Sequence to fold (252 residues):
Amino acid sequence: MSNSNASDLQNKTALITGASRRIGAVIARTLHAAGMNITLHYRGSKEEAEKLADELNQQRDNSCISIRLDLHDTAALPELIEQSQQHWQRLDLLVNNASSFYPTHVGKITEQHWDDLMGSNLKAPLFLSQAATPYLKQVSGSIINIVDIHAQRPMKNHTLYCAAKAGLAMMTQSLAKELGPDIRVNGVAPGAIMWPENEQDAEVQDDIVSRTALKRSGMPEDIAATVLFLARDAHYITGQIIPVDGGRSINI
Fold:
């Protein structure tokens, strides 16, 4: 990569939801290493969020803060944007990463399931994006939504989750059309990157990996690298959702 690109994100600020652990934490480390100041959002993982913030601040003083918020509290979502903006005096990137994921079997789906899965995967990203828009517009910033390859390829027993991610995919494209030319909006659609904590069945994992073109699982770093590309290098890309799935989405 050229030296000019290396400085593009220096002293710019990213707010990442669900950033205390797993893929969100790797995205935070990657953007921080590229020069960005980071606001880590978390809900329940306070100890992990504070540990990650300390880690990043040791690398570069006063470069990371953590903020706790339940994303289902829609009225409080603008406060998350405001707190980040007030601390750094700018907002260049919003990464909507936080997500709920679990099966919902037809016949047993509840309104609570609907509120949880739609809330974290679609409603919160919309209202956070809306609140962030005035600040992103000032700096020609961008929004990156973590979608899922199952937004287009349905997964059995996950009707609500897939529907929510499909909504997020369309929201990504719709916002790109509405917020251009000032704000770019893109998505990243992971495939088999990190197994859900409640899915440790080796046979299931092997079956999923066998359906990728690359015949292997991806790494959180693969998602983070794509987020970095979209944030730093993709100045003429908007309204796109990039699958990072080892070719799974091209296989039947």
Observations:
- Helices lie at 3-6, 22-33, 46-59, 77-88, 111-138, 159-179, 202-210, 220-233.
- The radius of gyration is 17 Å.
